[in-house]
Amino acid sequence: MTYKYAKRGAIKAFLNGAIASNVDDCILWNFARNSAGYGHFSLDGKHQLAHRYVCEKVHGAPFNGAYAAHSCGNGHLSCINPRHLSWKTAKGNSEDAIAQGRTVRGRHPRAKLTADGVCYIKRNAGRLTPTKMGKTLGVSRFVVHRVLSGHSWKWVNTDVAV
User: What architecture is domain 10-99?
Assistant: First the structure.
């Protein structure tokens, strides 16, 4: 992917255009990006992340430890649409990532256990031994114990059909 080299004033004009925009679609930063895909630039000698800059201009100064969270799920593509940005805690930002399906929870290619398997374990707790459940699901009894103790898969809702 190639990015535009910024001509004098181009970055400021692009940022101001994004801030004034009324579109619902993502506005993707088309200048330099860091290794995580987030846009960055220097303005008045200060290095800044584009999405945080826009969030601050539109929503005010961040609170201590605030993340400029993307409701669109396209932060890694460097979306800077102010309608998609808000200040959130680390927990709130993580919850957004889970809700948007941007985490690997339960989807790791080598994972043996699935959300349905976790529901099976929770529903059969006390009726079947961890060893028996583990054999049925192809996992160890220690995996079953970790599910039952809440050390893993605690986000899975047991109302999911098995």
Answer: Alpha-Beta Complex (3.90)
